[in-house]
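Blackboard transcription, Thursday session:
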Amino acid sequence: MKIVNKKQIINQLDTIALYLEIKGENPFKVAAYHRAGLALENDPRSMAGMSDLSKIKGIGKSTAQVIEELLARGESSVLLALEKDIPHSLLDLLRLPGLGGKKIGKLYRELGVVDRDTLKDACEQGKVSQLAGFGKKTEEHLLQSLNEQRQRPKELPIPYMIDLADQIERVLRSVEMVNRFSCAGSLRRAKEKMKDLDFVIETADPKAVARQLLEKLPMHEIVGQGDAKMTVLLGDPNQVSVDFRFATQDIYASMLLHFTGSKEHNVLLRRLAKERNEKISEYGIEREDGSMRTFQNEADIYHYFGLNFIPPQAREGAFELERAEKGPLNLIKLSDIKGDLHMHSTWSDGANTIAEMAEAMRSKGYAYACLTDHSQSLRVANGLSPERLLEQNEKVKKMNQHYDDFTLFSGIEMDILPDGSLDYSDDVLSRLDFVIASIHFSFSQDKNQIMKRLENACRNPYVRLIAHPTGRMLGKRHGYAVDVKRLIELAKETGTALELNASRFRLDLSSEWLGRVQEAGVKIAINTDSHSLDMMDDMKLGVETAIRAGIKPHNVINTWPIDQLMIFLKNKKVI
DNA sequence: GCCGTTTTCGGCCCGACTGTTTTCAGTCG
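(Written on the board underneath:)
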């Protein structure tokens, strides 16, 4: 098999690292292979665009050679040699809690363990507890994990984790002795997938808080419990692992920064501290004279290093850190949003009336919102016939007379039909304030046909936005066969905006693509696609996703004042 | 294995927790 794909190369580098770990190699050598993979991942260029690999920080002579060999031959002699040396099935054992490279290596060398079955046999025969460094408890724990039939998925999608985190936060609010708390980790950074949840809790009495949490939360198992932290598996269907970290008032900010990560971001901050002969940890910054400096908030910690504040969602690689040295990042924030341009009412498949939706948007402090019910072909969603649409249009115009601090635009989320035609005539569209086009059926068409549909929509003189451009549902379906690069070109050419659909179930486009949209100079709209009042709150997640992509407010049309937005809505390049 | 203008050798982030020990190694994040 010939490998050309960056993701596959990163996988191979990680596999080499796992083999080395089991071989008991120097942990820094193991980390070096992981880091080389990370360096590739964080580099925006494609493999073809990278000329001198060893020039990239984190990739040296050896790892560059491995990558070049993978590119040229599709396989790596380093990896092949390791595969000969060590049974591949051992890698799977790294997923068992409590087993790392050293212990697996020992089980393999001394007991001939090669996979879950042979490990189970060895445990049942009591051989494992005989090994030096192993004992009865380790053997029991291993047997227990091996007997737990269903393997927990490695990572879970953000909508699932948000629900769970909401549940935990409700409990935390009812726990005595909790002064404040925050989620941390991947959820605070708004990653699309994550493997666990983290919470930082300020309290003077960790024991009392831990006890109450154990009483009030549905619990599967306590994995670990000490004075500073508690790790549990929840009783939800996926038995999600949750870390609770306890902090006093003075170290809360440092604790939050540390456990928000990312790991990579922490390493970079530690290096920065080290350069100044200081040490940064979850307890603060230890200065050269041994004194400990604590901070009121995260921004103060960044300022201490001469950096501008970096929002949690932007704390992934080296890029943001370098930028934060030079000046404020000026990334979008929730308060920049002046309106929501995609929502549904009871006229199609929404749960609330137009008036209820409009009032809720207004009470959020928005200056405007746009009603965009479904179009006629989407019968399952009670899509609007041209007559009903025009009737609604009149109604919205009348409703607007009641407001002097808010504007409700009259729009539509129009289906792009399987043959590429659109669901209303230009004559109907010309009477609306805002036309969104999107795909809701015939998902399985090939890329050519899907792109033909999207191209037709972009070239229509009234379509101003393509909604949820890939159609993905997080954790459920991949979406249709979109050539996103080509779509961005089409959007650029025709002056059409692309949506970041902020619904927790979609986040479409993803932060990866959004960065490219901004680079191309294409405008973005962050919309919740609300079908009920409570869904409007997903705007926060939408903005967080945009921050991950490094989006600046001026590239997002619904941060604009209404006059500027109206100019955009009315003027389209006609190609 | 990678890195470097105090370093081409000797560091590499570092603390919590568990289990197996009786002072610490391994794992985890």
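Lecturer's comment: Residues 6-147 of chain A form a domain with the DNA polymerase; domain 1 fold (CATH 1.10.150.110).
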